[in-house]
Amino acid sequence: PPSAVANLRPGAEQKVVFITARVHPGETPSSFVCQGIIDFLVSQHPIAKVLRDHVVFKIAPMLNPDGVYLGNYRCSLMGFDLNRHWANPSPWAHPTLHGVKQLIIEMYNNPKINLEFYIDIHAHSTMMNGFMYGNIFEDEERFQRQAVFPKLLCQNAEDFSYSSTSFNRDAVKAGTGRRFLGGLLNDTSYCYTLEVSFYSYILGGPTSAVPYTEEAYMKLGRNVARTFLDYYRLNSLVERPLAPTPQTR
């Protein structure tokens, strides 16, 4: 029906979700999570079709391609931790950040675009499960609204932990994408770092650690994408019966 694609009509306001990954080259799980998001969104799954009709997804799957190519753990070709340079990225020294930041600012300044989410995907070497970092705001209502997406994700993904999710404004993290864009964008935008463990997630008791596989990382990505259906309350538009999400081993 024409109303189903209202968001994509010429001149209509667009809801945009911006996702980035692999700013730290050694954090390989972030690429598998991002792959899961992309594969799901371009699939024929009924949920993916509804999401494509209502939300514009912008995805930069690798912010540090030279660092990945060189096998660096954290830095770019020139030795920069790119995730500390969002405040003033140089087009020469930090070209990927500069390009993405320009695009985000351009969209933010466009009255026809509502940039609603920024999610930067990382991997964590000491924590278990998937979890998020968010920002701290003085406005209590904004702070509560920011907790909605991770709470919904926790219901959809058995390996995502809301109890490990935290909101901070640590000075060390001031140059990260989440912190910088959280300060730049207005109070209708939500900026998160999505972290996933390098090694395992816990189901039930403390002894039941399940090792992550590439497929489990991609499943987390699929569940991140599906959560936007709940967030935007689009469930009623999904064709029934729901096809099961493909399981590949």
From TrEMBL:
Record Pfam families: Peptidase_M14
Organism: Aegotheles bennettii
Signal peptide feature range: none
Family indicated by similarity: Belongs to the peptidase M14 family.
Domain Peptidase M14: 1-232
The UniProt record lists the keyword Metal-binding: no
GO biological process: proteolysis
Matching InterPro entries: Cytosolic_carboxypeptidase, Peptidase_M14
Keyword Hydrolase carried by entry: yes
PANTHER family found in the cross-reference section: CYTOSOLIC CARBOXYPEPTIDASE (PTHR12756), CYTOSOLIC CARBOXYPEPTIDASE 6 (PTHR12756:SF9)
Keywords: Carboxypeptidase, Hydrolase, Protease
Catalytic residues, chain numbering: 195 (proton donor/acceptor)
Name assigned to this protein: CBPC6 carboxypeptidase
GO MF entries: metallocarboxypeptidase activity; zinc ion binding
Cofactor needs: Zn(2+)
